[in-house]
From TrEMBL:
Organism: Cytobacillus gottheilii
Name of the protein this chain belongs to: ABC transporter ATP-binding protein
InterPro entries, alphabetized: AAA+_ATPase, ABC_transporter-like_ATP-bd, ABC_transporter-like_CS, ABC_transporter_ATP-binding, P-loop_NTPase
Domain ABC transporter span(s) in chain numbering: 4-234
SUPFAM superfamilies per the UniProt record, alphabetical: P-loop containing nucleoside triphosphate hydrolases (SSF52540)
């Protein structure tokens, strides 16, 4: 089943045209990595898919609903199926980690047990810590735990592993792979780590000059003769 279909997407900030006719598709159960240099428009693209940013031209279908024609009710409905993780912010100033998880469990009406998610994401050492006082990596961990709490159909992650130590990167990827395999969940994420793309993503989209310069399975890209995804990136993207 097609989860996302994007055609000719355009988006400008004032005179700065960031997306210039981007095409993209995601099918149920795919893990797709979006790559490109700093400022290429990856976060902009993801935020449009998250339905938190407008766009100028083109067509975006999410769960077969056209975002330009959708009613507010329908938009609410599809938002319940999507979980997002933005760069960690200081939203939750006065709440402790355990309280935050409880709050979101109630909000999402999640069947997941808090203790299970605490254990999965190894959050125990900071159960009683205030979110705002955590380090960047720990904030990221907690944000990810919250995202998985809602058991969404589609999960959109903006640089989910930036700032995480190698063990935590591993934990996060195990979670993504497991969520994908056991529930058939679809995952779209951005990363600057090409090893993650190579190991875990089914497909990769390279954004360059506002367009999908390449959108292929990682397998097909490597079969073109690149030694690694890093090699592919370095040869395709000018400094
Ligand atoms: N709210 C905004 N207002 C004006 N310009 C913006 C805004 N958000 C992003 N931009 C600009 O749009 C371009 C693309 O930014 P975006 O954050 O989407 O890129 P990115 O590929 O995610 O970059 P990075 O890898 O550095 O996170 C940049 O030139 C950025 O300065």
């Amino acid at each position: 089943m097609k989860i996302i279909s994007v055609k000719g997407l355009e988006k400008s900030y004032g005179k700065n045209q960031v997306l210039k006719g981007l095409d993209f598709e995601a099918n149920e159960g795919e893990v797709i990595g979006v790559i490109g240099k700093n400022g290429a428009g990856k976060s902009t693209f993801l935020e449009i898919l998250m339905t938190i940013k407008d766009f100028d031209q083109g067509e975006v279908l999410l769960f077969n609903e056209n975002l330009q024609k959708i009613t507010l009710d329908k938009l609410g409905e599809i938002r319940r199926d999507i979980s997002v993780v933005l760069q960690p912010t200081h939203f939750y100033k006065s709440l402790k980690v355990e309280e935050l998880l409880k709050l979101f469990k109630a909000y999402y009406k999640s069947n997941k047990e808090i203790e299970e998610i605490m254990a999965d994401f190894k959050l125990e050492p900071h159960r009683k810590s205030y979110f705002e006082k955590l380090s960047g990596g720990w904030k990221q961990k907690v944000s990810l735990a919250i995202a998985f709490l809602s058991e969404p159909k589609l999960i959109i992650l903006d640089e989910p592993t930036t700032g995480l130590d190698p063990h935590m990167r591993n934990v996060l990827w195990s979670y993504i792979v497991d969520y994908n395999k056991s529930r058939g969940g679809t995952v779209i994420l951005t990363t600057h780590y090409m090893d993650e793309i190579e190991m875990y993503c089914d497909k990769v989209m390279l954004i360059e000059n506002g367009k999908n310069e390449m959108f292929e399975s990682t397998e097909n890209i490597l079969s073109l003769g690149y030694k690694s995804m890093n090699d592919f990136y370095l040869s395709k993207v000018p400094v």
